[in-house]
Amino acid sequence: MHLYKLLKNICVVVITLCTFIAKAQDKATGNLTAIQELLNKAGYYTKQSQYDSASSFLHRAISQSQKNNFQKGEAMAYDQLAELMLTIGKLAEVRKYDSLIMPIASKIKDTSLLINVHNRTGVYYMERGKNKEAEQSFNTALGLGLEKQASKKTAEVNSNLGSLYLALGDKDKAIDRFFKALR
Question: Which of 67, 86, 91, 66 is nearest to 76 (CA)?
Answer without folding.
Answer: 66
